[in-house]
Design a protein that fits this description.
alpha/beta, 10 strands, 201 residues
Length: 201
Amino acid sequence: MTQVSLENLIVGARAGLLVSFPTDTVPALAAIPEKAALIFAAKQRSQDKPLILMAASAEDLWPYVKGSENEYKVWQELADKYWPGGLTLVLPASERLPKVMNPIDPTTIGIRVPNSAIAQTILAQTGPLATTSANFSGQPPLQTIAEIETQFPQVLIVTTEYQGEIPGMGIPSTVAKWTGINWQILRQGAIELDLSSDNQV
């Protein structure tokens, strides 16, 4: 039985264990950034597919990226517009980011703030976590606790008896990468991105 209470999941995550919890898109498989290698191993994921750093607020994520004052302004505008929500921003990584998050290209990192009460509660107490969808690499994201429990018996899964928690939409986040001048859409997902000219330097 790998289903645990919210408190025990937070304790486990802080201790470096693999955990799973609902988000506004698809359920996440997560670990503290220093233990990101556990996620790659559990998912049988290729090292050239980086993970996403998820946090309860944008303020928790900015220390992990670096850019000019103008770039921060552009990034903040997009974050203000779409976070919390299904948008992942791929930005230049700062020295603070553990290399295991993106082993092949540690110069960039995807960051996101989920629009999910339970995910936010967990992340507010663990700090930013390395995350990805809960599934074996190349397979569709798993949607239920039973499926996740079967595929990942070693993972702590939060019991989802939370009033008013809206289930995830089942669609992964939209991914937009900063090129240094403007945004490039890497994956069209949960959010229809409006990349008008005001999102450029």
